[in-house]
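Sorry to interrupt, but I need a hand with the structure work. Could you write out one complete protein record for me, on any chain you like? Just paste the record in under my message, thanks.

. . .
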Amino acid sequence: MMALLQRVRHARVDVAGRVVGEIGPGLLVFLCAERGDTEAQGEKLLAKILKLRIFSDAAGKMNHNVQNIDGHGRMGGLLVVSQFTLAADVSGGNRPSFTTAAVPDEGRHLYEYFVKQAQAVHPIVQTGQFAADMQVHLVNDGPVTIPLRVSPPDCVPR
């Protein structure tokens, strides 16, 4: 599984002109399941996201995570948006191939599982809408954008 994280001041997702998910300060998580991914990889990815120290302390150093964005216990939000296009392969030409992305039913299952796990351990979790035409609005803070990938144990990372 892979994610693209953006540290945001605020972010929201609109579908058909209606807000379906919105957070204040926190992380916008674009999430992609690839063929062969498992729930265990989703759990490992979520644990990494929650502990990743990418929020600044008083000295401006990245020392805080989304569970404590200010060093005083303030939690940031997670806005989780499905994004199969993270699996794009453009090595063969000008049109991206998405053959490594999970098939839609598998991708939906892993996305929903990830969200359910996130909601169980973090109090501020919002989502986009799987397979919808979404408009994502955000103010990237920093800007800070970080790619993450959790490969199956028997795979060599690309």
In short: The longest helix spans residues 104-121. The chain has a mean pLDDT of 95. The longest strand covers residues 134-149.
